[in-house]
Design a protein that fits this description.
By secondary structure, this protein is an alpha/beta fold. It contains ten helices and eight strands. The chain has an eight-stranded parallel barrel with strand order 1-2-3-4-5-6-7-8, surrounded by seven helices. The longest helix is centred in the C-terminal third of the chain and has 19 residues, at 177-195. The model has no long low-confidence stretch (mean pLDDT 95). It binds 1,3-dihydroxyacetonephosphate (13P). 1,3-dihydroxyacetonephosphate (13P) binds at residues 9, 94, 164, 169-170, 207-210, 228-232.
């Protein structure tokens, strides 16, 4: 049985004061949920987040890492640095990194290798844009992204996949539970084909305008193992209710 997982991607939000308040409420609110809970603040708030989550079941992750191990790469943060400060998780290949920072499938693959090498638990994001969806290319794009990131990688059991259709991110639009379930089944088929992974052992999350109001229906689908939550993870009550919906998953 795959344990449900809810991750909050805080993106470029927060201050020391808001991180303290939000995490204090989240730690109190989610308690000992059957779902695994992880928050991913900005790099500069990671240490503060570790301290606030220290005696709780809430894990902490980063939103990205470098593909390089060390060296003259100004502004970059390596997977080993994250591991060294106590970070367990890292989000890779988020569509905002692909869109605004030109991250290619090859770069995501190199970041994945670096993260696995450092012993981090990577969450690899895939998903099609509105134009790709309208052109009937959603499955093609997702396959290309999975193949690009995962081909040749061993140890995939540690890897989480997040299906985040770009058109659903921050828009209030979500894939219907049926649409998302269909893509999750497709992703599992691809995981087996591309990487020889045991797809039943890997967690596949849905992301894109997940809210307390739609979480139960999404997480009620047999192949949706939880969510990668953006905006709603900045509201402690919303996030707590999303975690509760994941915890109630059978
Ligand atoms: P929203 O939940 O704000 O749509 O963002 C989703 C996302 O990008 C999570 O990584």
């Amino acid at each position: 049985m795959r344990r449900p997982l809810v991750m909050g991607n805080w993106k470029m939000h927060g201050s020391r004061a808001s991180v303290r308040q939000l995490l204090t409420e989240i730690v109190r609110g989610v308690g000992a949920s059957p779902a695994e809970v992880v928050v991913c603040p900005a790099y500069v708030h990671l240490q503060q987040a570790f301290a606030l989550c220290a005696d709780s079941a809430v894990g902490v992750g980063a939103q990205d890492c470098s593909h390089m191990a060390a060296g003259a790469f100004t502004g970059e943060i390596s997977a080993e640095m994250l591991q060294d400060i106590g970070c367990r998780w890292v989000i890779l290949g988020h569509s905002e990194r692909r869109q605004y920072h030109g991250e290619s499938d090859d770069l995501v693959a190199a970041k994945l290798a670096a993260a696995l090498q450092a012993g981090l638990l990577p969450v690899v994001c895939v998903g099609e844009t509105q134009e790709e969806r309208e052109a009937g290319e959603a499955e093609y794009v997702v396959t290309r992204q999975l193949r690009g990131a995962l081909a040749g990688q061993a140890a995939l059991k540690q890897v989480v996949i997040a299906y985040e259709p770009v058109w659903a991110i921050g828009t209030g639009l979500t894939a219907t539970p049926g649409e998302a379930q269909g893509m999750h089944v497709f992703i599992r088929e691809q995981l087996a084909e591309i990487a020889g992974a045991d797809p039943a052992a890997m967690r596949v999350l849905y992301g894109g305008s997940v809210r307390a109001a739609n979480a139960a229906e999404l997480f009620g689908q047999p192949d949706i193992d939880g969510g990668l939550v953006g905006g709603a993870s900045l509201d402690a009550d919303e996030f707590r209710n999303i975690v509760a919906a994941a915890g109630a998953r059978q």
